[in-house]
Amino acid sequence: MKEGRSLRADIHSFESLAALDGEGIRYCVFFTGCPLRCACCHNPDTWFKSGREYGSDELCRKISRYKPYFKNGGGVTFSGGEPLLNAGFINETGALLKSEGINYALDTSGSVSLTNEVMTAVDNADMVLLDVKFPNAAMYKKYTNGDFDVFLRFADYISETRKRVWFRTVVIPGINDTERDIREYAQLVSRQNKPERYELLAFHTMGFYKYDKLNIKNPLTGTPPMDKEKLNRLQNYLNGLI
Ligand code: SF4
Fold first, then answer.
1. 8-239: which CATH topology?
2. Alpha carbon of 94 to ligand 1 centroid (Å)
3. What pLDDT, on the 0 to 100 scale, is given for residue 19?
4. 204 contact partners, CB below 8 Å, separation of at least 6
5. Residue 5 pLDDT > 80, yes or no?
6. Residue whose C-alpha is closest to residue 18's, from 6, 30, 34
7. Which residue's C-alpha comes closest to atom 2 of ligand 1?
8. Nearest CA-CA partner of 98 in 75, 78, 82
9. What crossing angle do the helices spanning 87-99 and 56-64 adopt, rounded to 10°?
10. Suppose 80 and one of 31, 59, 192, 240 were both cysteines; which one would form an S-S bond, judging by CB atoms 3.0 to 4.6 Å apart?
């Protein structure tokens, strides 16, 4: 491995041997910092710096120890927070990982500007897990405080580059859990290349305690977890539309 790289990034936490965020066995790196404030966020603790910085060399060495587990399409997933706020760092680390024969996936909200660094990080990723937060500008603003057009430009870039992509949407009771909502999501993604997967995820309340701990107002206080049977019905409905 080449040494002497310089960029550093603040990292919230790691999860080794994860199986959900991409193909095969994953090593997940959760960056701090996020441009959004999703009402349903279960990791508000990633919004703030953790105070633990890593250099790209150090991170690559840490990840490389898990290389034997990355058979069958496994690898690293850069997540967060929003990993693409650290696109330059990901590019350095990704180059080091590539020299070790390790690929990476990006788990992103796509709510970032398409700078050269961001496009390079996308281009070099093996695949992208893209959160389709809400299907229109009004809901996107209301429930994430983000700019829908920024997301659309990012999604269009993913489509243009024919990147392998899995879409994901968190379904929240009373907010985006009707067939009408699902039709709007299907219509939105119909402008993109067909994803390998489009997965609906159940809103849950396991992160609620973090809002209390951080003394942040939880916008979804009182909202129940998403009913799994209803979610399955909506997933089947979505599958029939895309
Ligand atoms: S993009 Fe993810 S980390 Fe950021 S606020 Fe939304 S759910 Fe939380």
1. TIM Barrel (3.20.20)
2. 23
3. 75
4. 42, 225, 226
5. no
6. 30
7. 81
8. 75
9. 40
10. 31
